[in-house]
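quick q for whoever's on today - can somebody do inverse folding on this one?? i tried earlier but teh output was garbage lol. C-alpha cells:
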C-alpha cells in the first residue's frame, strides 16, 4: 500500500515522517527518531483503549512482538490516551514496546490524523506506517475499517524489505 488515502497530507510512501516528541507510557518525553534508532519500525496510531477493533489489533501486535525484537526492529503505538491509561493498556496486553501519549492532540493536528466521525473521544484515525531508520515511509495502512489494517504477514514483509535495504550484512558472508 502506498499511502493512507485521504489522511495525513504528505504521509505517502517515500516521504519522511515528521519527527515529533511525546510523553511515553511512563510520562518520559521521547522523540520518534530516538525510538526508531537504526531499525525498521512499525508506527501504529490507534483510537484508544476502549475500541474493540484496537483491542483485536493489539492482540496481533503482541503476537508479532517476539519476531520484531529478535529481528532488530521496533514497534511504537500512539494515541490520545493519557500516559497512565496507555501504561495500563500496555501492561494488560503484555506489550513490551513504547506507547506514546498525544493527550493534547498537538501531533494529531500536525499529522492530520484526526478521526472526524468520533466527536466524543476525538481520537486518532487508525493508521499504521512502516518506517526505515531515516523515518522514510515504506508503507502506510488506513485502518479506519478493520480490514484496512496490516496483517502480521504484511508487517513482516515490510520489515524484511526495509531490513534488506538498510543492512549491509543482509547476505550471509561467504569465503
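ok took a stab at it. sequence:
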Amino acid at each position: 500500500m502506498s499511502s493512507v488515502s485521504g489522511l495525513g497530507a504528505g504521509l505517502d510512501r517515500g516521504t519522511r515522517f515528521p519527527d515529533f516528541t511525546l510523553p511515553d507510557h511512563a510520562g518520559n518525553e521521547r522523540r520518534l527518531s530516538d525510538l526508531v534508532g537504526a531499525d525498521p519500525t512499525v508506527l501504529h496510531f490507534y483510537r484508544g483503549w476502549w475500541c474493540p477493533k484496537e483491542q483485536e489489533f493489539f492482540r496481533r501486535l503482541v503476537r508479532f512482538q517476539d519476531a520484531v525484537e529478535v529481528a532488530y526492529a521496533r514497534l511504537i503505538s500512539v494515541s490520545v490516551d493519557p500516559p497512565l491509561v496507555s501504561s495500563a493498556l500496555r501492561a494488560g496486553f503484555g506489550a513490551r514496546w513504547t506507547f506514546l501519549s498525544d493527550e493534547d492532540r498537538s501531533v494529531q493536528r500536525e499529522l492530520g490524523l484526526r478521526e472526524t466521525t468520533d466527536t466524543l473521544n476525538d481520537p486518532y484515525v487508525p493508521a499504521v506506517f512502516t518506517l526505515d531508520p531515516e523515518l522514510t515511509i515504506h508503507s502506510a495502512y488506513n485502518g479506519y475499517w478493520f480490514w484496512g489494517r496490516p496483517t502480521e504477514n504484511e508487517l513482516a514483509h515490510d520489515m524484511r524489505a526495509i531490513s534488506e535495504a538498510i543492512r549491509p550484512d543482509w547476505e550471509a558472508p561467504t569465503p
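fwiw The chain has five helices and seven strands. also The first strand starts at residue 21 and ends at 23. so keep that in mind when u check it
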